[in-house]
Amino acid sequence: MIPEAQRRQLLEIARDAIAATFGRASSQAHPTDGSLAREAGAFVTLHIHGELRGCIGQVEADRPLADVVASCAVSAARSDPRFPPVTPEELDIVDIEVSVLSGFDPVHSIADIEVGRHGLLIESGWRRGLLLPQVATEWGWDAPTFLAQTCRKAGLPSDAWPSGGASLYRFEAEVFSEKEHW
Predict the structure, then answer these.
(1) Is the CB of residue 30 less than 8 Å from the CB of residue 67?
(2) pLDDT at res. 25
(3) Across residues 94-112, what is the average pLDDT?
(4) By CB neighbour count within 10 A (0-12 exposed, 13-18 middle, 19+ buried), where does 59 fall?
(5) Which of 12, 59, 82, 168 has the most other CB atoms within 10 Å of its CB?
(6) Residue 180 Cα distances to 2, 75, 97, 153, angstroms
(7) Are 142 and 115 in contact (CB under 8 A)?
(8) Neighbouring residues of 22: CB distance < 8 A, sequence distance ≥ 6
(9) Parallel, antiparallel, or unpaired for β 167-171 and 173-177?
(10) pLDDT tier at 36 (50, 70, 90 boundaries)?
């Protein structure tokens, strides 16, 4: 569990990284203590007026969490192919959400998936799709629908697991946002 003070720091790191792309903040070295220094995967999700505006993440836990969050924040704001880049005018109204990923466990049965608790990652060849735990809850999906939508995100048929040979993993995420903290 990430302490409250470090959650706030991660949200500030994300906002400052985005602001730096507009010249509105200087790019700084990130703190390297506690939870911020541990290697972890994370996603940064941006909303404006409750609508999705960008979401980019890194699955691999190969860099310090603070660096991953800063990088993902910039990518979510500037490089999510589903949306135009966030503008300097939007920076003040964007709400930032951070999802810090746990490790990944293989799924052996649909019963292994608890909607609202687990996110899903499916892989088949070079195709890979991931949906965060909060996505199923936001859309009101049951476990089979959540699985089918994860397959769809990877560009796979909805029955790619277990019959199609794809590998399926579940994970948990610690999710927090500016809405909760300010």
Answers:
(1) yes
(2) 65
(3) 96
(4) middle
(5) 168
(6) 15, 23, 9, 28
(7) yes
(8) 88, 91
(9) unpaired
(10) confident
Comparing 71 with 36, the larger pLDDT belongs to 71
- CA 167, 112, 135, 100 dihedral sign is negative
Residue with tokens 């965060």: 132
CA nearest to 3, candidates 29, 28, 38, 30: 38
C-alpha angle with apex 167: 44 to 135, nearest 5 degrees?
35
CA-CA distances (angstroms) from residue 158 to 63, 104, 161, 176?
Answer: 33, 21, 8, 30
Cis ω for the linkage preceding 157 (within 30 of 0):
no
Confidence grade of residue 179 (pLDDT, cut at 50, 70, 90)? confident
- Provide the 3-class DSSP secondary structure of residue 171: strand
User: Quick one: pLDDT at residue 31?
Assistant: 64
User: Could you tell me how far CA 4 lies from the centroid of its own chain?
Assistant: 19
Q: What is the DSSP string of 122-169?
A: EEETTEEEEE-HHHHHHHT--HHHHHHHHHHHTT--TTTTTTT--EEE
Q: What is the mean pLDDT of residues 92-98?
A: 95
